Amino acid sequence: MAKTTMKRPSEGEGAEEIRQAGSESGGNKGTISRREMLQALAAAGGAALIGSSTEAFADGKFSGWPDRRGMLTDLTECVGCRTCEKACNQANKLPEPSVPFDEKSVFEQKRRPTASAYTVVNRYSELKSPVSPMYRKVQCNHCNEPSCASACPVNAYKKTPEGSVLYNADVCFGCRYCMVACPFYVPAYDYDSALQPKIVKCTLCYGRIIKGGIPACAEACPSGAVTFGKRSDLIKLARNKIQKNSKRYLEHIYGEYEVGGTSWLYISGVPFEQMDFPAALPEKPLVEQTKGFLSAVPLVLTMWPALLTMCYAATRNKEGKE
Amino acid sequence: MNDENIAKAESFPARFTDKLLMGMSWAEYSKKLITPFNIVAMIILCVGFPLIGLRFWKGLAAVTHASNEYPWSILLGWGLFAGVPLSGTGYVMATAVYILGYKKYHPMVRLGVLTGFMGYLFAVIYLLIDIGRPWRIYYPMAVSFGPTSVLFLVAWHVATYLTVQLLEFSPAILEWLRSRRVRKWAVMLTIGMTIAGVILSTLHQSALGAMFLLAPGKVHPLWYSTFVPVFNFISSIFGGLCMVIAVSTVCARWLRERADATFLTSLDPLTVGLGKAASIVMFVYFLLKMIGVAHDDNWALLATGYGYWFMLEILAFVLVPMIVLFMGVKKNSARIVRFGAFHAIAGIILNRLNLSIITFNWNLPNHFHDIVPPPKEALIVLSIITFHILLFRWILNRMPVLREDPDYPEEHH
Description:
Chain A is an alpha+beta fold. In chain A, about 35% of the residues lie in helices and about 10% in strands.
């Protein structure tokens, strides 16, 4: 509180009140008790806080937690070694796959994250690109405003200030609407479980990053294709890379604006849709698409009873109507 | 006095059994059950129900495609997304009779309410088989709230509306059980429950369309429209009307002895009347669908494969049944109206399957391979449909739905 006052002595009435309250509380027997003073402080401080940040939290203007982390995948650097898949599997104690991680034949098919793999790497050998073949690592993109979270009827998803989008199996009843809603086809479901199925997806190694560590895949990557950091720093890094080597990269950071921005960012030398990235996604978070409908709900709830009662009143005494 | 009480206590189970067996003895009743229809139904249930057991023993993977790209299969595409609009029967009939005062449709109200109630009940049954942990189905209502989700709204509404419809239908159950005093209370709720039913139906019928607004890249643009909630609501109105025509047709044919003269004699004129209403609503729906294409400027897409499919749906399954219904009304022919109604119902099923399954993920490779349901899943659906019909018949055989109980003459609300 004090800090706020010091920093912004002239900002609004809140600060004035705090100083006044402060001076009056000097005398123990003053008209304002200690508790009252604290309340005033809290109220004024709260007002100042909310006042200065309303803009940031206002509808459609929330640009995400400021210090959220992210990842930058440089698709031109990935060599398809699958070390990240292995590291992820071990870090998250996932079941051992039937095909070992150094097996390259898996590239013959396009794969996607499953109930036993948070991340997979796919190969694109038929593209016209400066680097060939190209590889793409697929995993949860940790959207700024995740549509899985807006889809979930039991609020099982959470976007943490650290950047991770986390899923809580304890409240999930397995409707799978999140899988329908995810524009990146990420959440996987363990259909094989009869009674305890759950959604499975990457957590951005939440357990590691809150302890100051870095996600297993980024730590393991030998080619520097995956970089972990603050999302705002990663955007600067991506811009720098593109600027320094405009022949190697396209001028597009995938994830900077797509569906309201994602924590995971990508730069590439070939158009992203050629590597199966969903193209033409809206720049607004997908939750915007259902807002119009949901805002009409209270209208129906209040207008319908009135209108229908009127109809009933108007017709109740008419007999033999056709 | 004591003896009297004992006699009463003894007689209640006896009377109840008598009601269940429709006045027959066990031997008579079981003998009457052996019909070709029942034998076929039994065979289907004997195959389908163990497969439902398999789902709870080995997981959904054992009976469905279990695809991460296609989280919803026909269990929900058919059971929920197509089943709910066709269960709009309750709210359209109750609104027509109790709110708008079309009292001559009174003989069909209970049938409409029962069809609706059963439709929702079975939508929930399909859901319980499909969702991962069905015993948590009340979580959105009590444990963890996700109010940004359209599905949250659907969950609340389907649960509430199921209760509302049970209350709406309860007079029939109470008449069957001869519970005069409770029935009086239940009848008093009629208007309130009808209004609640319209509100809930407006919102969740449209919400079932709005759910797909969250997947703009996945649903084909011709079906992905900002108007989709309105499309779904409007089509549930004529869906409900046409289902009443269809169900009453089937009942008048195979359960004729359960209907009274009022029902049977008024059936044809009422069918034509319902057909008239349905064709008008279908016309509105058809225009809205056209406006939907114009609004998103999707005309160019009509010349693609999915465009032809879209036009087939709109022309052959909306415009044509609408014209058939209209012809039936013009010629005052209940027969033609019935053809139109069955056709329109097929159109609604096609539309909901298009939205939830057939055009969902239209741009993924191998799309058509992944949307064909595996035989086991199809058998599960078939067995639930069979069970649905059997339970429906069970109720119609016992409770005063197609007839008025002489002890409880119609009261004006």
